[in-house]
Amino acid sequence: MTRVTIERVVKEYPVRGRAAGTITAVDDVSIDVASGEIHAIIGYSGAGKSTLLRLINGLEHVTSGRILVGENDVAAMSERELRRERTEIGMIFQHFNLFRSKTVAQNVAYPLVVAGMPAAERKDRVAELLSFVGLADKASAYPEQLSGGQKQRVGIARALATNPGVLLADEATSALDPETSQEVLALLKRVNAELGITIILITHEMEVVREIADRVTVMDGGRAVEQGDVFDVFSRPQAETSRRFVATALPTQPDPEHLRRLQEKHRGKLVAVTFVDGGVDQPVVFQTLADRGIGVSIVHGGITDVGGRSFGKLTLELIGDELQVEHGIAALGQQTELEVLA
Fold first, then answer.
1. Is pLDDT above 80 for 316?
2. Global pTM?
3. CA torsion, ordered 216, 221, 223, 229, to nearest 10 deg
4. Most-buried pick from 15, 46, 261, 266 (CB within 10 A)?
């Protein structure tokens, strides 16, 4: 297993023409990825996440800072040293990047050919990898004969060919349908669990982060605006960018227009109640309200699993005498996080 440490990395590009100067794509970013961790880097287009991934495998050179893969500083390596180091860093791509003129087996074997592995040993390694990703029967097929999910499985097998300690995944599921995406994510979790490979993936989909990652870094404008355990970021996002991402993956509070329609439709007081694993549960909330003669309807939200722990928000309509409702809200506020939706 391999640790990846990114220390105060900056990447600038020169701007030519009348407004000569530089554009900063990655701005003083530090990330510590533990050995065997699945770490997601999420951001909208232009956030700098793809540039950061290219810096990790040396396809781009840092302007300043250090990138340690294990004990080796990628940022300080020569081209010859980088070619050797890249055998320790596997890479899978959004659009697969397979050789159309080569068979599945030849695609997987390509990095082994470059590494000079003997033919017999290479054949055994390819067979082992295709079996691992569930494509043993597709060795002689060509990429155009495969589905998108099968192509990505070939890409994963190829990335694993040289037994890397780190796997970089660049939007690995964004070109796939939801069901196939789940299959690919399940395979990546197997790679991590069974082979102990550290995985760094970039994505713009918070659902991918929720499904697979241990920790997450949120990027915006080239900077890391929030980092932490996935559950912590989902349950209490601090940065505005994080809050927007979380809202796309979890049924939390209604947006202002939806809230306006709910207020028009429902006559009772609307409150948003947060449910966090280890905190107050739904039966306690409903019993607290029932004990005070308050009727309850769930009008929005839901509870989901994040990193093996439950989290979510429910928007409740509280129906009853105004004083009873106020007492119920006060009692709930002592038990859990609650917000009255004006």
1. yes
2. 0.86
3. -20
4. 266
